[in-house]
């Protein structure tokens, strides 16, 4: 769409000349994200303040221009790709940590703060913010909130929805508002905070967040368990999660993933049918008992080797396989289809078996790994050529059908965006979707907020 | 309002003759709750099934009849009082625990299941559901969800919003829907689950809930600390919450509360300016370290006595003061005004000082006690006669003003209902309230769902 001169000069006046970019080279950079999808925005607005965000939404609404919130574009679903054109609002400059308040276990941040920078700032206070996507050094808190992005620690500490107290935001109506609380509990009206978290910019721009902090446990132990096959490992996951000591990471890699990692990183990566990385944290007194409890549950048919790292250095070595996986996958396939389906933990063995059958049936390399303690598997399809790419599509649909049949859902932590929008009716009933659309209409009556995402 | 014969005979056909009551004696019983407010419903419908709930909402919508969901009426805000008449839908017969699934750490229940009955059923599996209102033996899960009701354990384990995975419900439109997941994480669309939790029956009838279970720690230690004055105790609370070991209960009683309890239960209740009850739980190895960490934080200026119970029997004795408090208050004042304001933990000393000043200024007995670890105080005004009752009203408004000025909010766990509805604009901006109204209209376009509650 062509933006009118009036609109653009209003934006320039509101934001300052330097904060609005319309040159194609700059726009191009803000047209794609980690989904490798792409579309050209008509302008990029760099926001410095909440007040600018308010005016931007009001201008976009008045001119019916699509408005796409963007953190650092690390999402994998195309949630920030401006498919309908319009203005991309980049929050990268709103990156101030406004307050760290250890006494009240909270931090107030602007949305552009990087997850990793926040963790660094919190560490001297003895706290952390639990959500920890793999992209944490370069993804923004605003993006984490928009997608309800999680990570390995979620198994013990929860996702953004469990770790956010309140928000400041601008609805698609152009009205600024605050929601939530600055306290660790509250029962004062509807929970708009959680409603905005995971809404992928389709309801409002988040301009400030009050995050709930968790005290950093003083000690951590890392264990690595290898199994003869994926079924044995999946059963071990279910056993670990059925006993009282919840690990702070319980990561899974299947045999294909291990082989890939080994080819890439060498024989420090064990050869096995499947691998679990297990971490337990807590106060030092408690750790030996916790390690013992988790080890007991990890043992069982099919266990090849269970090893606890002696120190942080060895723990790093044990994580080598997991860390080698991403570059290894990229090497194998430039068309990686990165899924993050989730099933109840006890259905993991069934999911893992189904994925293996799908790989055989569709003659397609598939690796499975991820946050097994939440039943959240990154099932990555790795087509190497056009024929495999073509077979990937029906395979993906079958994967989703399997997941739904196992009482799971489409996304554990990546969100829906463009990539899974059309699969939403498989996961949610027509009435549920209609209620979501009703909420969307009431926050954004003119449909300007990140159109084309999330809802089919 | 008079219900038409057509409407009543439709309801009889849908529900069965025995499940619809219109006799005044029965209606009277379903017209009040623990707020001691009262209004006469025009009919009481006892629901047995989800399908009946769907038909009931559809009938009420077609005839524009108010519909009030009711668990066991233990709430203190008038949230279930049928101020506009209409039909009270009682869920007391939908009290089946449909599934306990320890492997996936979840339970599926009908809304009429009593909180205490669920805990009893979960215990043999080694799990519990964290929300634990004082009324847990006789309050329903549906009511807990409707009000986001919490309790002492929330300080460590969270409220219903952190402990519910998914819901089945009927919106005010008459459409049945499911929302949420059966997994421990999910990023598939808007979070309708948390939106319904705490919505006090104004959006939908909840007909089934999938609850997230927590493993029951094997060991528990109880400590009692007494202080010379409330300020010292409040500072100790802030110190306890600023260190890494989070207690599973951190309860506070001020000197007035202690005196009341002592008059009622005798000198096993200590005489002091303030008291903290502290519980820590975990695996046995971890407890001595946890008790030590919490004790260290509890010590400081003004500490009179710190005592750890040797066993469960002694722990019970230590809790005697807290347990004696409710009957003692009832004895003093038949007009108890029961508030549950919440402030950030570090502002507790200021809140407690302000409450003492309000009691002096308005010449009114006020006791403060409650869930100090969350900054959630039950500030109970205890007017003994009409003059004091009259002074209670401006005192209450000043209390809320103080709480808001301290970055707190109106309710930590009781909700809003009728009692605090008109104070909502003090806590929430006009835009926030308007967004809530927009959501209400989209779930309940004809305004039949618990009219007059929550939103001013």
From TrEMBL, chains A, B:
Entry EC number(s): 1.1.1.28
InterPro entries xref list: FAD-bd_oxidored_4_C, FAD-bd_PCMH, FAD-bd_PCMH-like_sf, FAD-bd_PCMH_sub1, FAD-bd_PCMH_sub2, FAD-linked_Oxase-like_C, FAD-linked_OxidoTrans_Type4, Oxid_FAD_bind_N
Keyword Transferase included in the entry's annotation: yes
Domain FAD-binding PCMH-type: 37-216
Gene Ontology BP terms: methylation
Source superkingdom: Bacteria
Enzyme category, top tier: oxidoreductase
Any single Pfam family the record assigns to this protein: FAD-oxidase_C
GO MF annotation terms: D-lactate dehydrogenase (NAD+) activity; FAD binding; methyltransferase activity
UniProt keywords, alphabetically: FAD, Flavoprotein, Methyltransferase, Oxidoreductase, Transferase
Cofactor(s) demanded: FAD
Record-stated family: Belongs to the FAD-binding oxidoreductase/transferase type 4 family.
Record-given protein name: D-lactate dehydrogenase
